[in-house]
Amino acid sequence: RFWNWHFRMSECKFVILRLLLTKQFKQKILKKKMKILHLINFSMKKNDKKLSDSDFSEIESKLGYVFPQSFKEFYFKWNGGIPNKTVFVDNKCEYLDIEISRFIPIRYATPFKNDPEFTLEGRAICGWAEQTLPSHLIPFAIDWGGNYICLNKKDDSIVYYVFDTYCKKSTLEENFEGNSKYLCNSFEYYLSHLEDSSYFDIL
Known about the structure:
Blueprint: H1 2-40, E1 44-45, H2 53-63, H3 69-77, E2 82-83, E3 87-88, E4 98-103, H4 120-129, E5 137-143, E6 148-152, E7 158-161, H5 172-179, E8 180-184, H6 187-192, E9 194-195
Antiparallel strand pairs: 1-2, 3-4, 3-9, 4-5, 5-6, 6-7, 7-8
């Protein structure tokens, strides 16, 4: 009897564990589907040349930063370009309705004869060298005013970096901090909160 009871208890635990794992698996699949569904209506035009794994490895080495997987997947599909969804909309964010003009391509800049200054890594390295951009920010998109949407190398968060404010009385670090506006905690979150410009029509 003891062994029968023990066997039934073990079997019961196994069933419960299987149900829990199934539930967790379904939740993961649902989340993945939601992300995919959001990008179904996302498109880009005027993309640059496709990237390879070696391209990414080379750029990561230059920048001293390993890009988030979601960022890589996005850029493998679209290497820069003009998106159909351009406006970042998030009620939690202090800075509302930031509209970008384009995503910055990596390694290639065909319209500019591949001038490195027009690539993602070129803009970052140039900005760091000229001290116009903090060394922990990597620009991947640009708005209509020439300001950057950046990846933060420290924690993979997304930062809006503006160039139209500068205080001569402040130190370089203070200006860097004042010009850096936190948007959200990840590239994935940023993408999921982009809307097309018709968003302004309903305001």
